[in-house]
Amino acid sequence: MADISNSTQTYSTDMFWTDIQNASEYMNVTANSLDPFGTTQLNLRSLIFLAVFFALIIIANIISLGAFLVEKRLCTYNNYFIINLTILDLLVGIGLVIDVKQWYIDRYPFSQNACKVLTGIFSGIVNASNINVVVICADRHQAVYDPINHYISRSKRKAIIISSLSWVIGLSFWIGYVTVWEFVVDHDNGLHCSQRFRLSPLTNMIQNNAMFYLPLAIIAVLYVRIFIKIRKTVGRRNNKKSTGLMDLNLSTAKDNEMTSVSVSSTSHTGSFSDILETGSRDDTMISSSSSRNETKIGNIGQGISYGNSLLNPISYAMSQPLFRATIIKMFSCKRPSQAN
């Protein structure tokens, strides 16, 4: 009987300490976890930061569109390209809401079919934003090297048609490259909405070139040529002023175009950084993390890479006094002046 009692007591003691350890671990998990999906306080703070950050992107671009709508004098040829870029940035901010939800629950919130369709559309919008910067650079390049014809031919209708090209090219390529392809091969996107083209180095290289390297190369070449041309023109003017020779036959249209190019190049510097950030954004999506914390850190970096969508409307307000004054009047409940 004594042996049985000692054995029972030992067994009960082991069970007791095991229960204490399990309870301690449970309390630690419960203290750090705020939801059934395992989101810790640190991760939750990061998600709140990203949610606020993406909300600012949406609000800033809505304010920008509102300024263009209430002040007709802002609807100029050059600003039509900015309006198009603002719409694209607004859609990017709205699309990022899905990413916040995905990072919070650690899985894609919709079905795989929705993943295929929405990923194709969102990638097309992001690429259209980059292509729109290429379109702006090409228009500024023509204004520098062929100012007379550019001044004569420019119109709001032309700006709208040219701006629509970025939508057509971006959406047609990415819907075909992502959505159509994945439906044809019946790709399994899994819980995290992984894309088919990321499984092959060749197809992944194609998307990197289409999204990042090709637009970057075109923009770099065009801006270098614009910079060289403006520098030569300014140098010739300085030489003529120093020798007392004034070029009275200089075209007024060319002067206006050169000034417009300088202002436009400054206001679109932020858009150039958007393409740089797109590459790091794709690299972040490709890399797989070994732990949940590493995944959250990568998601934070990926989210911050969209910061140019917030910087664009801020740069518009800084570079255009009328745009800035219109926003101030909107918040002060003053009626903006109408064009004659």
Q: Characterize the biggest β-sheet.
A: none
Q: Which fold name is given in CATH as the topology of the largest domain?
A: Rhopdopsin 7-helix transmembrane proteins
How would you name the CATH homologous superfamily of the largest domain? Rhodopsin 7-helix transmembrane proteins
End-to-end span in angstroms? 108 Å
- Mean of pLDDT: 74
Structural class computed from helices and strand pairing:
mainly alpha
Kindly give the count of domains.
Answer: 2
Rounded to the nearest angstrom, the radius of gyration is 28 Å
Number of helices: 12
- What is the CATH domain class of the largest domain? Mainly Alpha
Low-confidence stretches: 7-13, 23-37, 245-298
Shape: globular
- How does CATH name the architecture of the largest domain? Up-down Bundle
Number of strands: 0
Helix content: over 70%
Strand content: under 5%
SSE succession: HHHHHHHHHHHH
Task: Describe it.
With about 350 residues, the protein is mostly helical. The protein has two domains: about 30 residues; about 290 residues, Up-down Bundle (Rhopdopsin 7-helix transmembrane proteins), CATH 1.20.1070. It is built from twelve helices and no strands. Helix 3 runs parallel beside helix 6 and helix 3 packs antiparallel against helix 11.
How would you briefly describe this protein structure?
The chain is an all-alpha fold and 340 residues long. It has helices at residues 2-32, 41-70, 77-105, 112-145, 147-153, 156-185, 201-243, 252-267, 269-286, 292-304, 308-319, 321-331.
